[in-house]
Amino acid sequence: MMLRSCWIRALASAPIPANCSLISGAFFKKDTTPSLTVCVKRNCGHTPAHTDSYHRLPHCTASQDRFRICGAARFSMASGSNGRENLHPPKHTNRLSKEKSPYLQQHAHNPVDWFPWGQEAFDKAKSEDKPIFLSVGYSTCHWCHVMERESFEDEEIGKILSDNFVCIKVDREERPDVDKVYMTFVQATSQGGGWPMSVWLTPDLRPFIGGTYFPPKDLGRRPGFKTVLMRIMEQWQINREVLESSGQRVMDALQKATAISAHAEETLPSALDVAHRCFQQLAHSYEEEYGGFNDAPKFPTPVNLMFLMSYWSVNRASSEGAEALRMTLHSLRMMALGGIHDHVAQGFHRYSTDSSWHVPHFEKMLYDQAQLAVAYITAYQVSGERLFADVSRDVLHYVSRDLSHQSGGFYSAEDADSLPMAESSEKREGAFCVWTAAEIRDLLSNTVAEATGGATQADIFMHHYGVKDQGNVQPEQDPHGELQGQNVLIVRYSVELTAAHFGLSVNKLTEVLASVRAKLADVRGSRPPPHLDTKMLASWNGLMLSGFARVGAVLGDQTLLQRAEQTAQFLRKHLWDEEGQHMLHSCYRGDNMEVEQTASPISGFLDDYAFVVSGLLDLFEATHTVQWLQWAAELQNRQDQLFWDAQGSGYFCSDPLDPTILLSLKQDQDGAEPSGNSVSAMNLLRLSHLTGRQEWMQRSQQLLTAFSDRLLKVPIALPDMVRGLMAHHYTLKQIIICGQPDAEDTTSLIACVNSLFIPYKVLILADGNTEGFLYKKLPVLSSLIQQEGKATAYVCQDFTCALPVTCPQELRRLLLE
């Protein structure tokens, strides 16, 4: 969310009592003792794109201005279970033990009287007239674990919290609507944000102070969490009216500042200008040596890469187009070779703590795997480079093996931390993934007969993947010493150079490396595994549906397409409420592997609808099974009813009628995930061309117009929405294949289309069923027939079709014109 200056002006105009200082829109009484800045670490996992997270900083140091509490608040100093084996019955059990979320369950035995987000907690706060302490995180968040261990498991702090606050714990992935509201507050008042998020609310849910991570005790001039709690309790007693009124004033200002709407005089912004500016902004932030954008910490940002490939596709003859493609392919190659890519067990870690993609934050997120699978297969389409196809398969192999439920759904994430050994008492970052040189030598002692100098498997592997006796992680990447002496695998040489170095053929080296990686994977499988978040989210499953459908279509892999269809069936069975006609946001793996639901299921949010619709459209174009298009159209209708802003255009992120959600937000940031509005802009356009409903095209234009100011000023914040704007400018091609679905000539034409990256198109198989859904929605199909009894392709644009072709080579030429 881009923060506007209007809320600052609004607060600046508010009268501040002479004996108070401003803190997050609240007033804290001054005293005569030196005042100290409360430092809060912003950290962990998936952060909004405009707030870089930073992982392995030393605990509780204020370096690099990474510690904040909403506007550098100043306090006067006048006066889990996670990471350890639980060998004894829990001393404490709270309400979270009844919850399904793995994150909430992690806190079920804290000495804190935690409540889940809900009416019981709200009623208690009002009846007892207590402020609310809201703690938001997620199960694979490293610093969430740290704060639990340091503060929430502390008996004294637990008693202070339970006696003086109504304590609510929220899984941000389970309740993104709650997270967005209070993260907006924290970011607006501190210029930063992250998880764990800590916010104090009035009984009517209005925030008056917030931050992220707090150390448990005072450190030098930095007050600890206990001190913060005591000062808030004091101010709640003596300054309550000021707290409440100023908190209200902040929220009123934020409501105005975050409003996004189309004005009567606004028109669709120029796609060419916006796309050119987006390219320039990305080129300015591009890092030449290793690819990617900005310096460490460095995130994969698939939304940026997909924009650049789309920009190249319509600017192939220009120097800018060539540069966009070079930036993309170099970034993807360097990520594939780097330590952010798991060379033993596949998949990608969350981000790199250095600029060279070497030492990652080891957490693995489902949404990263989904988007990177699509980015890599798209790179294969545009380049023909086999590496990219192999990486896309690699990602889907990891997801199928480690993140899949037997019913077809996908789990959310794998943690970064795990026990180094079964008998260890503390988890460590990356313990599951790293290696010592001694381990490698012990495991890979066999000599390779064809290699020069009697080289062993270990010699070859250590050379190729940069394994060193002293470890290959620099101290600045490991301030806590968790990776001392360890190696994070990173490809240091091409297979050609490594093969030449050891006198091997490339084929033989490839065989050796594959065998060694498989052996190491077996060894890793015997290590204590990291925590697996088995929550299954409709939105992220929708992204993964796209991944399997898109890769399966390009590679012509029926196994991948069958897995995609299994996911769609899972979504329909477990995350669609047929009676209520709405999506559900989440479901859970039970103790016996069955799919479970909470007592009060969480209704779907905008992202759930948008990402699933997009996945279903990709699945339809990959399999030509019309039921998926029909369901996509039904979901789009329901999305329009639930989230469309009839006055200002665009979609709200959540139900605007929910009284417990204080801000009606429209996400205007394509970050770790694309925004629901960006995805919807393209969904509406695709559906319009697939069903003939012109109002969906008009709605897409209205949506883009609502975001025109953002698109014109900072298109780099919305690269996926820029792609939607470009699609309107260039108009979608309708590629229609007339033929029998399983006939060889039909599949050859479809394979030709799928081999090319054509970002602005829809693919339709016209099988002659004039009574079917497609023919009824698109009457023009009845006039398109096979030529000379052969499968025939028609390429149509702007209601005009080119001459039909029956030869794949001719179709390829036509599509590349």
Automatic annotation (TrEMBL):
Region (Disordered): 80-100
Gene Ontology annotations of biological process type: carbohydrate metabolic process
Chain ranges of the Spermatogenesis-associated protein 20-like TRX domain: 93-255
Organism lineage: Eukaryota, Metazoa, Chordata, Craniata, Vertebrata
Pfam family, one: Thioredox_DsbH
Record-linked SUPFAM superfamilies: Six-hairpin glycosidases, Thioredoxin-like
Name used for this protein in its record: Spermatogenesis-associated protein 20-like TRX domain-containing protein
Signal peptide segment: none
